[in-house]
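Thread: quick sanity check before group meeting

JM: Hey all, I'm pulling together slides for Thursday and realized we never actually wrote out the predicted structure for the chain we discussed last week. Dropping the sequence here so it's in one place. If anyone has concerns about the input, flag it before I start.
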Amino acid sequence: MNKHLLSRITLGLATIASIGVWAQESESILFVTSDQLDSYWIAEKKVAPVYPTKSLRNHEEGCVAVGFIIEPDGTTSNHQTVIAFPSSNFNKSAIRAAKQFVYKPSEQNSVREVVFTTNSFTFQITSSRKFDEQKQKKLADVCTSAANKSLNTDTVDAGAG
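JM (edit): ok, ran it. Output follows.
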């Protein structure tokens, strides 16, 4: 694993470890991977991020996994970059998009349990050359895999940190 990716994963783990400080309405937050999310919350509205002009001009591509809390009303809060690869140029755009997400509880989540989860965004230039779906999947897998590995604990106490 490359040194820069490892440092970004470590930064992501520190971010997730601090989630407990943010939880004020709940005694604990359930950590849910993106693969498990449909058991708790279903996306009603997702917004694609805007490709940053500077990154587009420089032909930079990458991915960002944004972690956030889904509140009882289905809105998201406490948005943080969990991992950015290969650089942080896309963080603000990804967080701006995630702040607009809205969820509805699944049938199994009638109590509207608060969860912390992640969403991966890929940034790939499609106009300058043939769009490479395999490359996009690899970019998404880097971020999603690292984010899911960092969610290896079930809950964090609200007073931890």
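AS: nice. The first helix runs from residue 3 to 17. The chain has five helices and seven strands.
JM: adding both to the slides.
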